[in-house]
Automatic annotation (TrEMBL):
It holds the Pfam family HAMP. The lineage of its organism: Bacteria, Pseudomonadati, Verrucomicrobiota, Opitutia, Opitutales. This is histidine kinase. It comes from the Bacteria. Residues 170-223 form the HAMP domain. The chain crosses the membrane at residues 12-36. It comes from Synoicihabitans lomoniglobus. Its main location: membrane.
Length: 451
């Protein structure tokens, strides 16, 4: 379907509009030119006839009876009058009212009688007044034919111009369409791709080359940042493991005072939190690199969520939450069980963490077409509208007062895991005003088998 907002459409419309305007100006100019040129020719002819008639009269070579001869053209009118404006003789086709009306003037003028229009020339010649006229009906018919031809041809030429400009614009903009299609597939994992070049030495080719050079710089910067994140996370894991081991060894000696032991326990918690952040960063770096989990099997998602129910109850007991679970049995999916467990547990933990005391937590697993749909709702604080677009951004936290309780990587990791399995995680409006997340993952209809 043709888009009225496309550049190709606008080029065609503008070209057709400019062409139509130019044709209208040209047609009007042509009609005006033809009108005045033919009128000038008629005027010259009338003067010539008047002078010729005056010459014949002066040489006694013309009699009033000569007006009755058939040698005159039907569109030509001749009349001879006295100085008192009495008609001496006239051609039969020349109306008397026109002659009398024109005889009171000298020179050229337009006259009209009944349904006829005349161009008349009047001159005095001695004792006579000569009136010469030209019937303008044929002149008018020529102009009408010209105008009709132009009106008929104008839409055809406009349509032809629009069609040709559409084809030319389409051919000219093809490199841009190809580049747009290629750019639409370039993501974080496909920065090595480049936009196709037309091979022409024109502005579009130059623009494509500049974009490809920019993509190359972006790819280099991105790879450097990704390698740094992965390397830094990997390098930090070892010293953190050593620190955690040393803290545990010191705590096991039971030779520390209460203050020192409390400080070491706090440090141990922070080390565990840093381990969790590093683990999440390493996993995100792997997803960024396009390396999905190789350990994908077909397993029962319903059974996994059922096993996690006890963990949910333990998490929610301290907050005195009312938990409601509705799990449709035997929903099978193809995926990495450990990553799917991480996704579900992360959402469930967030629903507990950011809930209110004695609040409500509902989660449902159901079939939705060819997908398994996991819906989790809780009575947490409403999420501000300006925070919703950034909710899945890395390191973003809605409530900065809770910054110490999380890393801001959980939801982004959940989305990466879901997308790695062909699914999606979304925050959706809830009819009851609860905080509602929905996870959809393609399901399979097969017995559990390893891939």
């Amino acid at each position: 379907m043709m888009s009225t907002r496309s550049l190709r459409f606008r080029i065609s419309v503008w070209t057709a509009s400019v062409t139509t305007f130019a044709l209208i100006v040209l047609a009007a100019s042509t009609v005006i030119y033809v009108y005045f040129e033919d009128l000038e020719a008629i005027d010259e002819h009338l003067r010539g006839e008047a002078l010729e008639l005056a010459a014949d009269i002066s040489h006694d070579q013309f009699e009033p009876e000569d007006f009755q001869e058939d040698e005159f053209e039907p569109w030509l009118g001749l009349a001879l009058l006295t100085t008192e404006r009495q008609i001496i003789g006239r051609t039969p086709s020349f109306p008397s009212p026109v002659i009398r009306s024109a005889s009171g003037f000298e020179g050229l003028r337009f006259e009209k009688s009944a349904d006829q229009n005349w161009r008349v020339f009047v001159m005095s010649s001695g004792e006579h007044v000569i009136v010469v006229g030209h019937n303008l009906e044929e002149f008018r018919d020529v102009l009408l034919d010209l105008i009709t031809a132009e009106v008929v041809l104008l839409p055809f030429v406009t349509a032809l111009t629009a069609w040709i400009s559409w084809l030319v614009a389409g051919r000219s903009l093809k490199p841009i369409r190809d580049a747009t299609a290629a750019a639409a597939h370039i993501g974080a994992g496909e920065l090595s791709q480049r936009l196709p070049t037309s091979g022409n030495d024109d502005e579009i080719a130059r623009f494509t080359e500049v974009l490809n050079a920019m993509l190359e710089r972006i790819e280099k910067s991105y790879l450097q940042a990704k390698r740094f994140a992965g390397d830094a996370s990997h390098e930090l894991s070892t010293p953190l493991t050593v620190i955690k081991g040393e803290i545990e060894r010191m705590l096991e000696t039971h030779q520390l005072g209460p203050s020192a032991e409390s400080g070491l326990l706090s440090a141990q918690q922070e080390v565990d939190r840093m381990h969790q952040i590093i683990d999440q960063l390493l996993l995100l770096a792997r997803f960024d690199a396009g390396r999905s989990s190789p350990e994908k099997t077909t397993f029962d998602l319903s059974a996994m969520l059922g096993e996690m129910a006890e963990d949910v109850d333990l998490l929610s007991a301290e907050r005195e939450l009312t938990v409601t679970a509705n799990i449709e049995p035997h929903l099978m999916i193809l995926g990495d069980p450990s990553q799917i467990r991480r996704l579900l547990l992360n959402l469930l933990a967030n629903a507990v963490k950011y809930n209110r005391d004695a609040g409500r937590l509902d989660y449902t697993l159901q079939a939705s077409g060819d997908h398994a749909q996991f819906i989790i709702r809780n009575t947490g604080n409403p999420i501000p509208a300006d925070a919703m677009p950034r909710l899945f951004d890395r390191f973003f936290q809605v409530d900065q007062s809770h910054a110490s309780r999380g890393s801001g990587l959980g939801l982004s990791l959940c989305r990466e895991i879901a997308r790695d399995h062909g699914g999606e995680v979304e925050l959706v409006p809830d009819p009851e005003g609860l905080i509602r997340f929905e996870v959809t993952i393609p399901r399979v209809h097969a017995a559990p088998t390893a891939v």
